[in-house]
Amino acid sequence: MVVKVYGPHCASTKRVLVCLIEKEIEFEVVPVDVFKGEHKDPDYLKLQPFGAVPVIKDGDYTLYESRAIMRYYAEKYRSQGVELLGKTIEERGLVEQWLEVEAQNYNPPAYNLALHGLFPSLIGNNPDPKVIEESEAKLVKVLNIYEERLSKNKYLAGDFFSLVDISHLPFTDYIVNHMGKDYLIKDRKHVCAWWDDISSRPSWTKVLELYRPPI
Ligand SMILES: N[C@@H](CCC(=O)N[C@@H](CS(=O)(=O)O)C(=O)NCC(=O)O)C(=O)O
């Protein structure tokens, strides 16, 4: 059964798409136009009751939350494609730790910068400069910790590429390439080297090429 991935043009969905490509899992996409409110349609809400993208359908199995979907496929297809969960329980612990750091500390300010800076129509066309300023200040604190971590490890979970790095790709692409805030990444030597490495992976460049962000 081919996996159906809903909302490929959205950032969170791109985490899932990159994971599927790295694991060599066949998929098809179902476009969802969030600017037309298609993610709030009754039929979509039956799949994802919170009205957000992505959601996947794999036969009778439905799953939402991009990081949960990534973990599911990284585990289910452990024996194929790139190992994305580390090789030992200690490495897995670090993958889980840094995935939480990304979800709890990095993504919220990055998401706010994207909403207020790139997609104000999704918030009633009322971008708030104070939110932008506060979000950038939060990101600076997080990125300073990343700089120290990445001065000792090639990737965030350790010296191995993992779901953690995939999870950072979509919103960091917005920051570097669409917001004029590339200095947040490029002014930090080790963060910059990490970004250059992970954003040059064929899985990411392919997803960007196939499913252009709605900017
Ligand atoms: N925690 C969710 C977040 C999903 C999410 O916020 N999706 C956004 C799209 S994107 O910002 O990730 O590109 C969305 O549906 N936004 C529309 C809405 O929330 O109404 C996940 O990781 O799947």
UniProtKB/TrEMBL annotation:
> What does the UniProt keyword field contain?
Cytoplasm, Detoxification, Transferase
Under Gene Ontology molecular function, one entry of this record is: glutathione binding
| Catalytic activity field | RX + glutathione = an S-substituted glutathione + a halide anion + H(+)
UniProt domain GST C-terminal: residue ranges: 88-215
Protein origin, superkingdom: Eukaryota
GO biological process terms held by the UniProt record: glutathione metabolic process; toxin catabolic process
One Pfam family of this chain: GST_C
Limits of the GST N-terminal domain: 1-81
**Top-level EC class:** transferase
The UniProt record lists the EC number as: 2.5.1.18
**GO CC annotations, alphabetized:** cytosol
Localization terms from the record: Cytoplasm, Cytosol
Give the chief site where it resides. cytoplasm
Instruction: Extract the SUPFAM superfamilies matched here.
Output: GST C-terminal domain-like, Thioredoxin-like
Q: Which family does it belong to?
A: Belongs to the GST superfamily. Phi family.
Name the chain's protein.
Answer: glutathione transferase
Which gene underlies this protein? LOC101501972
